[in-house]
Amino acid sequence: MYLPLLPGFFRDNDGEHRLITKSQAKEDYLLRDVDLEKREPPLRYFTRRNPHNPMWGEMRLYLDADITMEPAMLAQLCAVLDRPEPAYASGRLVVAPAKSWVTRKFMTLWQRLPFMTRSGVTGAGLFAVNAAGRLRWGEFPRIIADDSYVRLQFSPEERHGVPARYLWPAVEGFSALVRVRRRQDAGGREIAETYPELVQNEGKPPVHPTDHLRLFLGTPVSYLVYVTVMLAVKFGDSGKQTGWSRGR
What we know:
This protein is an alpha+beta fold. The chain is built from ten helices and eight strands. The protein has a six-stranded mixed β-sheet. Strands 1-2 form a two-stranded antiparallel ribbon. A hairpin with an 8-residue loop joins strand 3 and strand 4. Helix 9 packs across helix 10. The longest helix is centred in the C-terminal third of the chain and has 21 residues. It is globular, with a radius of gyration of 19 Å. The chain starts with a strand and ends in a 13-residue tail after the last helix.
């Protein structure tokens, strides 16, 4: 299914991923679970059977359409998910080089936030669960932040990181950053309102005044760009965020 594109990373035969999430397929193409899983001809999906104990069932990998990963990723995910208890895993996120100046500055600061440096496994763009973990929820809900919904099914202790890297591309330009960041905030609020019991699994450290000072002194221009984007997210004309949006 995958052939090398860049040194150390995979994409498919056409040079671009053709994978999308189950929930996105259902929303974009008005499909149901029966369409994805039972109707003919069957649609492809991406799973890996546990290599050590087949009785534990298949482990499923959910990969954003624009993510590329190192070849070692699958083996490392299989190894860390090789356990009978529910488990969630992801690799080491590496932000892909951005073309626009504002995106480069924004992402420089974003990667230094406590959420990225102290909260453990984020699973942004790529995550995997074992068979026992997949039993934590049924159908994917029709919500904005389905990746966060899955991550919050697991406590921080049940989320495991592996050293293999994957490239995560950021959206390009100020307007796209504001739009996607606004969507992410809306997705977080939707989960808190609809599934308040999951919030206890967040494990996201707060940003203290000392963190702001450290970030500003370390990368002042990136800090100002980040703050400007977040102010536009909060006070700009957002309209009504009702669904998933992509800026790339």
